[in-house]
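Give me the 3D structure for Branched-chain amino acid transport ATP-binding protein LivG (TC 3.A.1.4.1).
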Amino acid sequence: MMEKGLILDKVVRDFGGVRAVDNVSLSLRPGETLAVVGPNGAGKSTLVQLISGVDRPSSGSITLDGRRIDRLPPERIARLGLGRSFQTSRVFPAMTVWDSVLVGTHMQLLSNGKSGLLDPVREAAGAVLSLPFWRRRRAAQEAAAADVLKLFGDRLWPRRDQPAFSLSYANRRRLEIARVLASRPAYLLLDEPTAGMNPTETGEMTELLEQLPKLFPQIGLLVIEHKLSLVRRIADRVIVLNQGKVLVEDTPDHALDHPEVVEAYIGHPREGRKRSNAHLG
Ligand SMILES: Nc1ncnc2c1ncn2[C@@H]1O[C@H](COP(=O)(O)OP(=O)(O)OP(=O)(O)O)[C@@H](O)[C@H]1O
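Predicted structure for Branched-chain amino acid transport ATP-binding protein LivG (TC 3.A.1.4.1) (281 residues):
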């Protein structure tokens, strides 16, 4: 039977003499939020690149819903249902907020298509002649785009006609997440979603991430994040990486209060939870 989930089995990535990812096994199931944390150089970014197909493991395997993906290019992996955001925002600068999110809804069509491609003649005819199938689909896409933009409160919806380049840094990051959400991925990989955000913006993003499993109950969320207070709030499970290896895998409180984890983060074992919280959020 097909095993549902994103599954890494003994994944290794060597760069010359440096083993950036060392025998990492993990699984993310539909409906689950998994956070991956670790100090600088732990291998988090390399892991993201491997899962999303930007880089290939030196050994080991990665499967998505039973299908090997570790030799597939990123766009194929995206069409199989893995959406991702980047550490720095990657939006189309001249496109409006609205059109950017509509592009996301279009990605969903591609991943639903059997071959991953739409019939160009039918599509062109639909658009030029405004055929019923095309109008119906367009209306559904517009409704989906509006729903996703409204998830971000008044941050994006009132700015929907603005080009992405005119947005603040935080709004560009929100837009990137909105676009990938609009593609309705089965699994969503968020690479430091609050990087560069101030405490208010981080708080809003935390609330949104808390809401996502309620809004999209089947989505599997994999979040790479430095802010451990956010991780404590959103994650069902936490994997702590250190020097490429899985140091601990547990519930947030157990994982983040584990003495080895505290030591890996701050260089010495902590003396009490209160003190560790000051460092570990
Ligand atoms: N392309 C590369 N060539 C050589 N070494 C690399 C390469 N990419 C990563 N590394 C090394 O692999 C190790 C893990 O790096 P990685 O960027 O994955 O860690 P990280 O946990 O994402 O760190 P940070 O939190 O600082 O982003 C580091 O020692 C890094 O120097």
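The longest strand covers residues 18-28. Let me know if you want a second pass.
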